[in-house]
Amino acid sequence: MTEIFPLFRDYSLAVKNWLRKATRLPRFEREKYNIAKITLTGTAGGGVNQHEIHLTLKQHNIKAGHSIVLVGTTDNDEYYMVKSVFDAVIVIDQNYKKLAKEQTTSLGQLQRTINVVYAGMDKAVSEIAQPLRNGNIDTPGIGFYLSGYEMLKEMSRPKENYYTRHYKDIYGNTVKSAAVPPLATYRLNYSINLYSIYQQEMDIIIYQLASDFNPEKWFWIGDEAYGFNYRGNRMDREHKGQWAHITLDSITDASDLETGSTNRTLRTEFAITITEAYLPMPFDDNQSIIGAIDIDMIPKLSKPVL
């Protein structure tokens, strides 16, 4: 099922991106398979118009329900879910993510990865915990969701209060002006639930996430081209997004709260807070994301200097 981030979309996507990049398992690092070709009209197993990844070897450990990532392809470097497997042919679940383009040449690799989904407790149990309990997969998974939010009234402006943003070049000259919509300021709380059947791998994932906070963390929310790897003039990046300040509130072993068979999964819950998040007003499909608006403000907390 396609994931939807209806409220504070950019922040949820940033959390998901962080969880994907921060977590990795040693055994997955050893499972890398070369890609022979990629097709959008596959017929393996009697299917029709399947999105398929053809590996160079039939010997692999990829199974239905595994989360994978493609690296080094021409147009398909992304995260996917495996629907079915026929020897060296990996059929992709198009309801999760579709491949972008066909690739006729042998290029890139397929790797296993930890499954990360935006999901409340019910969905996380059905999509992550239950398959682990049943032995269908052995891949740890992470479910996260926006568990609460609070408007910071003293930091918000009424929706009628547009202001004019003046754009300046590197010499300080005004080159253009634009009306900027007001921003409602919120504090966001996220619940992150880790699931695993192996204690060692649970400990590895906890270590990887917890060590990212010292004792805080920053996310870049906005145009990715101006994020952490941006090496241009910092003034050019000033109004391309927001440095979001994140704190780690708690880490709780919640395994005893899991019910079910003797093959119950381990569960650890992280609670994090985004101290200042912004909701553009009024609602507009074309502009209600942080990356599409200008933020003209000086935060109380210093942005990291990169």
What is the fold's blueprint, element by element?
Blueprint: H1 9-22, H2 26-29, E1 32-42, E2 50-55, E3 67-71, E4 79-86, E5 89-92, E6 109-113, E7 115-118, H3 121-133, E8 141-151, E9 163-168, E10 174-180, E11 183-196, H4 199-210, E12 216-222, H5 234-237, E13 241-253, E14 266-280
Parallel strand pairs: 7-8
Antiparallel strand pairs: 1-2, 1-6, 2-5, 3-4, 3-6, 4-5, 8-11, 9-10, 11-14, 12-13, 13-14
Brief write-up:
Helices cover 15% and strands 38% of the residues. The chain has helices at residues 9-22, 26-29, 121-133, 199-210, 234-237, and strands at 32-42, 50-55, 67-71, 79-86, 89-92, 109-113, 115-118, 141-151, 163-168, 174-180, 183-196, 216-222, 241-253, 266-280. The model is unreliable at 1-5 and 286-306 (pLDDT under 50).
Main sheet summary:
6 strands, antiparallel, barrel
> Whole-number radius of gyration?
22 Å
Q: Give the helix/strand class.
A: alpha+beta
> What is the 3D shape?
globular
Average pLDDT over all residues: 81
CATH uppermost class of the largest domain: Alpha Beta
CATH superfamily of the largest domain: Phage tail protein-like
| Helix/strand order, N-terminal first | HHEEEEEEEHEEEEHEHEE
What's the architecture of the largest domain, going by CATH? 2-Layer Sandwich
CATH topology annotation of the largest domain: STM4215-like
